[in-house]
Amino acid sequence: MHTIEQRKKTDELKYFRPKMDRSDGDVFDMICKRVKDDEDLDTQTQGTLEALYNRYVVRKSKQDAEEIWKKLTSGDSRKGDDVK
What is the largest CA-CA distance in the chain? Predict the structure, then answer.
């Protein structure tokens, strides 16, 4: 993992920092300090950064978005007229 990739991942994870539990947050803070100081991360720390990224940054695929759109547009058009 190159320095640019490390910086991108830490920048994206900063938005998810409030959602992290205490241990993940502490680890992430230490990784951010090392990236900020332009240190190269060892393989274990790179793996930890990758695990945090995969756990907190959820990417939706195009297929997921299309399924959600279908659910929203093909739903029941009644607005509770018959409901008592």
Answer: 65
Radius of gyration of the chain (CA): 20
> For residue 33, what are the CA distances in angstroms to 20, 28, 30?
17, 9, 5
Nearest partner of 31 among 48, 12, 51, 18, judged by Cα: 48
Q: For 54-69, write each residue's pLDDT tens digit.
A: 998 877 777 877 888 8
Q: Which pTM value belongs to this model?
A: 0.67
DSSP 17-81: GGGS-HHHHHHHHHHHHHHHTTPPPPHHHHHHHHHHHHHH--PPPHHHHHHHHHHHHSS----SS
Q: State the helix-helix crossing angle for 3-13 and 22-36, rounded to 10 degrees.
A: 140
How do the domains of the chain map onto residue ranges? 3-70
Calpha distance 34→52 (Å, rounded) = 16
